[in-house]
C-alpha cells in the first residue's frame, strides 16, 4: 500500500484511477453463448453447464425436494441471523415507498404519479467460493415489496450439480419459486430471451464475474434492463485522530478479501494514522484465510494523507466510493458534504460488513466511480413510475391556448389541432 | 391503417411488434466520430460541424449577445406560454421530492437515505425541422430542482451557424449558462469526454436521431450514464363508445406527424368506432402541413377491435405504450389496471399534447416497450440516492453477532473480524 502525502489536486485523478476493464474482448466470447441460448434454449443451457460448470444436468430447475433438503441443512443459528437481516432490510426498504403524487398544476389540470412494480425480474447469484445468500435478500426483499410478480433466480451448480443450501434456504424464505441451476453468460441469456423452462424477464439484477457483466451489457441491446454497470468492489476510509487503527485496518481488509481486483483507499489526516493502520493491517493479515487475495488487492491500493479537511472531502467526492467509511470525530459534518458515494458508514462502530449483511441498507451499490450518477439498488430499482393526467373542460380552456401557442412555435400543427378541436367543442364553435 | 377484429392472444405480440432498430451498423459510423472528439477535442468538433451541419464555426459557445438577440426575437405570446408551462412542470416535479428517509431498524442501528443531485448533466436538444424548446423545459427544470450544479446544453446550429431563438430563450430562462452549437454524435462525444470548451458530464439526456442514439449507447461504455434507451415515439388510444372520433383522430395524428417511424395503435371496443375514427383521420389529414410524415406513419399502424375490456387491458399492458390515451367511460377503472405505460391520459379532454408541452408531466418517456421496466424522466433521473448508517456500540452489540454468523457462512472471515474486533472492545475483552 503506497502512501502519498498531501498530493496536489492536479494529481488526484491519476492517483485515484481505477483499473480499466476491457469488456470488448470478453463480449466476443459471450456473444455466441447468448446467441446459442437464444436459438436453442434449454439444450444450449445444458451444453454450457456441462462445459463451464463441469456437470451434466437433466433438470435445470431446483426441485421442492432439494429445497426441503436445504432447509434441513442450514444451521438454526444461521437461520436466525438471516431472519433478522431480512426483517431489517424489509424495514428500510418499506420506508422507501413513494407516496402517490397528486398535483393540480392549474385549476382542472390534474397530474399524478404512481409506482408500479416491474412485473418480471431476474436475479443472478454467483457461485464460486463464497455462497452469496446475502445477495438473495438484498435483491428479492425489495422486489417483493415493489410488487414484482415473477421472480426468477439463476445460480450456477457446483460440480455435483447442487446449489449451496444457504442460497436455496434464503430463496424459499423470501418466496422465490423459480430457481434454476444455470450460471454465467448462459444464465443471463436465458433470462433475456426465455427458454422452454426459464422465463424471460424485463430486468436483470445481481453481481457476477466479467462474463456475467459482459452478458448483462449485451442483454441491454436485446431490450432488457439491468441494475447497474458493474466493477470491482471498493471502499474508501476517511480517518482522523479519533479513528481506531485496528478497526480501520479490519475494514480495509474486509474489502480487500473480496478479490485481487478490490480497491481500497485510505484517506487520513496525518501520516501517523496511516502508519498505525498499516501496522495493524500487517498484523491482522496473518490470521486471514483469504490473505492471498487481500494482500494482492492491498498492493494496488493507496493511502493518501491530506491534512486539510476541505481537500479530503473534495478528493472523496472526486473518487465517488462505493463504500465510504467516515472514522472521524464529527462524521455527519463530513457526510453532509459528500455528494458522490454509494453508501456511507459513520463513526467507529459502523463497519461496512454491517451494511453488507444485516443493518437494512442495500449492499448492491455503484462501483468504479458510478456513484457520481447511479444510486445503489433500492425499492426504486424494482418499480416504474407511471404519470397520469386528467384535464377537465374548464382546465383545458385555460391550458389549451398555452399548448396551441407552443405547438405552433414548434411547427407541430397536429399537436395544436388536438387541442383546438376540443376547445371548439367546449366553446360550441 | 390495418384493422384486426378480436385477434386471439397468441397473435398479439406479432400484431404489436415494433420495427427493429439496427444500431450495430450505425455504431460503426459513430465510433470514429467519438474517438476523434476524444483525441482532438474542439478541432474535431469544428470539422464535424462543417461536414454534417454545413457551417464553419470559430466559436462553439453561444454568446451573451446571441442570447440577448434571442430574447428580443421571441414573441410575447410564446414567452407567456413558456412561462406557464415552466411553472406547471416545476410544480409537478417539485412534488416528486423524496423525503429524507430515517429508520432505526434495531435499537442503535440507524439507516438513512438522501437524494443528492447529479453534479454535471448534459442536455441534448435536436435541431432539424421542429425547434424542441419544450424539451429544454422538460430536462432543465427537474435538473435545477434536483440541484445539479453544472448544466451543459448542446444543440446543432443551422446552416447560418445559428440556434433557434426559442431554444436559446428557454435555455436562459431556466438558467443554463453553457450552451454549445454542436449536434449529432459529436455533441454526445464532447459531453462524454469533455473538450477545451465543452465540459465533461456524468449523465446525458435528450432525444435525437439514430446517430445520437447510437452515440449515447456508446457513451455508456465510456462510463457516462444516459436517461434511457430511445426508440420512435408512439401512442396507444383505447376508445369505447364514449370517445369522440374527431378527438381520437386528432390524437393519433399528433403522434403520427412526428415522423414516418412513429407508432400509432388504436384499440377500440367496436369496429364502428374504428371506422368513424378512420374517416376523421382522412378528413383531418388534408389540412396538415406534415401530412406526408403522418400518412406514412399511419400506413404502418394498426387498429385492433377488442370487444372484451379485460382483453383490451391485457393487450395494452403487453404493448406498454409510451403514451396511452384512455378515451373511455370510466378511465380510472382502466388506468388502475395498467401496469406498463409511460404516461396515461384520461378522458376526452386530455390530449397527449397537453402533456407534451405544458400540463406539468414530463414528455421524455420510455418508448419501444421499455415502459415495462423504465420510468420516464422525472426528478429521480437527476439524483442519486445515497444511503447512510450510524450504529451505536449498543446497536452493534445486538446486530454484530448476526453479521458474524452470516459472514462466517459466506466464508468471508475479514468481514466477520471487522465486527469481532469492535465487539471485543465494547465488551472489554
UniProtKB/TrEMBL annotation, chains A, B:
The active site is at residues 322-323. Keywords: Amino-acid biosynthesis, Histidine biosynthesis, Metal-binding, NAD, Oxidoreductase, Zinc. NAD(+) binds at residues 124, 186, 209. It catalyses: L-histidinol + 2 NAD(+) + H2O = L-histidine + 2 NADH + 3 H(+). Binds 1 zinc ion per subunit. Zn(2+) binds at residues 255, 258, 356, 415. Its cofactor is Zn(2+). GO terms for molecular function: histidinol dehydrogenase activity; NAD binding; zinc ion binding. GO terms for biological process: L-histidine biosynthetic process. Pathway: Amino-acid biosynthesis; L-histidine biosynthesis; L-histidine from 5-phospho-alpha-D-ribose 1-diphosphate: step 9/9. Catalyzes the sequential NAD-dependent oxidations of L-histidinol to L-histidinaldehyde and then to L-histidine. Belongs to the histidinol dehydrogenase family. This is Histidinol dehydrogenase. It comes from Roseivirga misakiensis.
Amino acid at each position: 500500500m503506497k502512501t502519498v502525502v498531501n498530493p496536489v489536486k492536479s494529481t488526484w485523478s491519476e492517483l485515484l484511477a481505477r483499473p480499466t476493464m476491457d469488456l470488448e474482448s470478453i463480449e466476443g466470447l459471450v456473444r455466441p453463448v447468448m446467441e446459442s441460448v437464444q436459438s436453442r434454449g434449454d439444450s444450449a443451457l445444458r451444453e454450457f453447464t456441462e462445459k463451464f460448470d463441469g456437470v451434466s444436468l437433466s433438470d435445470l430447475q431446483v426441485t421442492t425436494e432439494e429445497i426441503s433438503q436445504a432447509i434441513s441443512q442450514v444451521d438454526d443459528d444461521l437461520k436466525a441471523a438471516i431472519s433478522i437481516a431480512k426483517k431489517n432490510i424489509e424495514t428500510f426498504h418499506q420506508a422507501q415507498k413513494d407516496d402517490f403524487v397528486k398535483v393540480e398544476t392549474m385549476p382542472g389540470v390534474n397530474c399524478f404519479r404512481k409506482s408500479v412494480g416491474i412485473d418480471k425480474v431476474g436475479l443472478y447469484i454467483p457461485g464460486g467460493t463464497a455462497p452469496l445468500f446475502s445477495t438473495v435478500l438484498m435483491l428479492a426483499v425489495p422486489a417483493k415489496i415493489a410488487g414484482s410478480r415473477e421472480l426468477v433466480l439463476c445460480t450456477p451448480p457446483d460440480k455435483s450439480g447442487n446449489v449451496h443450501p444457504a442460497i436455496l434456504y434464503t430463496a424459499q424464505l423470501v418466496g422465490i419459486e423459480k430457481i434454476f441451476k444455470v450460471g454465467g453468460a448462459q444464465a443471463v441469456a436465458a433470462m433475456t430471451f426465455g427458454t422452454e423452462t426459464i422465463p424471460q424477464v424485463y430486468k436483470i439484477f445481481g453481481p457476477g464475474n466479467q462474463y456475467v457483466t459482459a452478458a448483462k451489457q449485451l442483454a441491454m441491446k436485446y431490450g432488457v434492463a439491468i441494475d447497474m454497470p458493474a466493477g470491482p468492489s471498493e471502499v474508501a476510509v476517511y480517518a482522523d485522530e479519533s479513528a481506531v487503527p485496528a478497526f480501520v485496518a479490519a475494514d480495509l481488509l474486509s474489502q480487500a478479501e473480496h478479490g485481487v481486483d478490490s480497491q481500497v483507499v485510505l484517506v487520513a489526516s496525518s501520516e501517523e494514522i496511516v502508519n498505525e493502520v498499516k501496522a495493524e493491517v500487517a498484523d491482522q493479515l496473518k490470521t486471514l484465510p483469504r490473505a492471498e487475495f487481500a494482500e494482492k488487492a492491498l498492493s494496488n491500493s493507496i493511502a493518501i494523507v491530506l491534512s486539510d479537511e476541505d481537500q479530503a472531502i473534495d478528493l472523496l467526492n472526486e473518487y465517488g466510493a462505493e463504500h465510504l467509511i467516515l472514522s472521524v470525530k464529527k462524521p455527519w459534518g463530513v457526510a453532509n458534504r459528500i455528494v458522490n458515494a454509494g453508501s456511507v458508514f459513520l463513526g467507529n462502530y459502523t463497519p461496512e460488513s454491517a451494511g453488507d449483511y444485516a443493518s437494512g441498507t442495500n449492499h448492491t451499490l455503484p462501483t468504479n466511480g458510478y456513484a457520481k450518477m447511479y444510486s445503489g439498488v433500492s425499492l426504486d430499482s424494482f418499480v416504474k413510475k407511471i404519470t397520469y393526467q386528467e384535464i377537465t373542460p374548464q382546465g383545458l380552456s385555460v391550458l389549451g391556448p398555452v399548448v396551441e401557442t407552443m405547438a405552433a412555435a414548434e411547427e407541430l400543427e397536429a399537436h395544436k389541432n388536438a387541442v383546438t378541436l376540443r376547445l371548439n367543442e367546449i366553446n360550441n364553435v
